[in-house]
Amino acid sequence: MNVRNARNASTTQLSGLKQSLSMFWSERNKREQNMLLAAIAVIVLGLIYVLFIDPALSGRAEMAKKLPALRQQAAEVQALARESSNASRKNAGPVTTMTRESIEAALAGKGLKPQSVTVTGEMAKLQLSSVSFAGITDWLADMQRTARVSVVDAKVEALTQPDMVNASFTLRQQKSEQ
User: Fold this and answer.
1) Cα–Cα distance, 159 to 157 (Å, whole number)
2) According to a count of CB atoms within 10 Å of the terminal CB, is the N or C end of the chain lower?
3) Alpha carbon of 105 to those of 27, 97, 110, 111: distances in Å?
4) Cα–Cα distance for residue pair 153/100, rounded to 1 Å
5) What values do phi and psi take at 163, rounded to 5?
6) What CA–CA distance (Å, rounded) separates 131 from 71?
7) List of residues 6+ apart from 97 with CB closer than 8 A
8) How far is the C-alpha of 102 from the C-alpha of 154, rounded, in Å?
9) What is the C-alpha separation between 165 and 131, in angstroms, rounded?
10) Ramachandran sector of residue 162 (left: φ over 0; alpha: ψ -120 to 50; beta: rest)
């Protein structure tokens, strides 16, 4: 009930305001009405400028002042990234050539026993039977990081036991960049 009374009261006030404004307007002659319209237009335009245009222009000017410094910082960051990349390449030790023994030793380090390992040049083929999938992924990540080995071909077959797979891989060792 209070909401309805509040609406009625606001509607009554609004209609009273309309009446008083219309009476005020009708009491003015044409020249006064034109002057009031011009004053209202100036006030509205002033508000638009103060609320919208001036903040945009001053923000743009501020950004224009900051842009050269930001570009300089971006260039410095890029130069540091290039320098870091070059330093990491220079500091990376020479990669030993991939051999059957090195592959078997790396697999044994992860608790994996290969069924067969064949190495020809920079390529290696290996088969694993009934091994842990998590162990294989750890071993591959380690080989990629330390020996610059990438997987050319992989066939992985899940077994009924959890985390157990049969797998065969063809690996390629990337050439040294020195």
Assistant:
1) 7
2) N
3) 104, 14, 9, 10
4) 18
5) 65, 10
6) 53
7) 173
8) 20
9) 6
10) beta
Give the integer Cα–Cα distance in Å for 19 and 16: 5
Instruction: Write out the two tokens for 112.
Output: 């994996």
* Contact call for residues 117 and 100 (beta carbons, < 8 A): yes
Sign of CA dihedral 18, 24, 29, 34: negative
Strand-pairing partners, residue 156, are 167
Q: Which two tokens stand for residue 55?
A: 């903040």
Percent of the chain's residues with pLDDT above 70: 93
Tell me how far apart the alpha carbons of residues 69 and 76 are, in angstroms, rounded to a whole number: 11
Q: Rounded to the nearest 10 degrees, how much is the dihedral formed by the CA atoms of 44, 50, 55, 61? A: 110
Encode pLDDT of 115-158 as tens digits.
999 998 889 999 999 999 999 999 998 888 888 888 999 999 99
Q: What is the pLDDT of residues 140-151, one digit of tens each?
A: 988 888 888 889
- Calculate ∠ Cα 142-148-151, nearest 5°: 80
Q: Which tokens in the block code for residue 49?
A: 């400028």
Task: Report which residue type is found at 98.
Answer: M
C-alpha 104/C-alpha 114 separation (Å) is: 7
Per-residue DSSP letters for 103-129? HHHHHHHTT--EEEEEEETTEEEEEEE
The pair of structure tokens assigned to 175 is 């050439």
